[in-house]
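Researcher: Good morning. I'm working through a list of sequences from a screen, and I'd like to move beyond sequence-only analysis. For each chain I'm collecting a predicted structure so we can compare shapes side by side. This is the next one on the list. No need for commentary yet; just the structure.
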Amino acid sequence: MPFLVANSRPSSADLVRHMDHVKNLCGEDHVSIGTDGKLSKTVIDDKSRAAQKKFYEDRAAQGIAAPGEGPDIFNIVADWDDNMRYRRLADGLSKAGWTTGQVEKALGSNLMRVYGASLVECQLPGQRWD
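Model: Good morning. Structure tokens for this chain:
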């Protein structure tokens, strides 16, 4: 998320604005939160700083680092960095005019639909995954 704003420190309003832009650009069936997010507050200590530096250096070496990323930029929205981040995001999207169904899609049902379709596509003849 550091690429959401020029200063690499996005706020909750920046995230909602970005998700709203994606929904308006691609449609509500094509926006979702990834599955790699933490549920607890981000601990920033020497160990996490070293891990962030390596993460960034690996991405930069592969040429896939996003604008605003850096060795000391953590991928967080600071004002929602706690165990209620997804609840806060749902409330933020609702306040921005998203319907309950659109929020549910963005917070998981779109991703589950894509995963389900991918499993069906990967299934070998005669194989069942249920």
